[in-house]
Amino acid sequence: MDFLSLGVRIAYQVEGDGPETLVLLNGIAMSMAHWNPFMKAMGDRYSFLSHDMRGQSLSAKPKGPYSLELHAHDLKRLLDELGIAKAHIVGTSYGSEVGMAFAILYPEACSSLCIIDGVSELDPVLQAAAESWKTAALADPRAFYRALLPWTYSNAYLAANGETLRAREDAIAALPREWFEGFAALCDAFLDIDLTPRLSSIHCPSLVMVGDEDILKREKFSRIIAAGIAGARLETIEGAGHASVIEVPERVARSVAAFLEEVG
User: Fold this and answer.
1) Which value, to the nearest 10 degrees, does the dihedral of the CA atoms of residues 225, 226, 229, 232 take?
2) Which segments of the chain does DSSP mark as H helices, in order?
3) Can you tell me whether residue 33 is helix, strand or coil?
4) What pLDDT was estimated at residue 264?
5) Cβ–Cβ contacts within 10 Å for residue 261, how many?
């Protein structure tokens, strides 16, 4: 399904019919379909709303600039379109950063916040990684995908999923040029991140999760977020790299479900 946000076509889907809504926010190179194993593991207690942000996959890819705040505004318009007054926000990586921006801008619409492998600021290593991804995306699709791998997945996942990853590389290589231009615009939005000074304005129950083998958005960033949001809980996902939602969706779902059960 599609809707228009300021004239930009945004693709979205709603799964399940539970009384409470979980909004699932993509990582920078993800699509809605990546959430399927997580939703299956969560069961039928919730309704799930996912969408490809402007610049991603099935949504339109207008020229930038984009921003985390612009994505948050798009999400609020989508919730209004669907008549959803309040939702639990679950985001991974780029999506978790959009989730924090949303919780800051629209506190009345945010029942809780789950931040998975996210950051609220940059350091030189993370900045260099994002800049290299953008450059590779605009230069060569296969080089781009291979550049993502060591930053994204754990040792165990890389060792066990060689055939799957080769198939994904082929799929990435077949994407149109506009996909990579959209990705580059998303990278620019990420490189402008400066959420740490505003974390104290997030007041909803918050869970901060990070893979213990995440070498991209390392645990130090999650500790900054957990320290900045009053009452936030920090949880480490053992044996997971940066893409923990893809690597261990059942484990992530268990933690999210337990958190939501606790906060009511």
Assistant:
1) 150
2) 36-42, 68-82, 94-105, 124-139, 141-152, 155-160, 162-173, 177-191, 219-228, 244-247, 249-263
3) helix
4) 76
5) 9
Please state, in angstroms and rounded to a whole number, the distance separating the CA atoms of residues 173 and 247: 22
Q: What pLDDT, in 10s, does the model give residues 219-240?
A: 999 999 999 999 999 999 999 9
CA distance linking residue 80 with residue 163, whole number of Å: 42
Distance CA 56, CA 32 (A): 10
Cβ 11 vs Cβ 37: under 8 Å: no
Confidence at residue 153, expressed as pLDDT on a 0 to 100 scale: 98
Tokens of 186: 């998303």
Q: Is the separation of the CB atoms in 120 and 196 below 8 Å?
A: yes
What is the rounded distance in angstroms from the CA atom of residue 108 to the CA atom of residue 86?
7
Q: Whole-prediction pTM value?
A: 0.98
Model pLDDT for residues 187-214, shown as the tens digit of each residue: 999 999 999 999 999 999 999 999 999 9
Contact in structure between 154 and 237 (CB atoms under 8 Å): no
Q: Do 13 and 50 form a contact (C-beta atoms < 8 A)?
A: yes
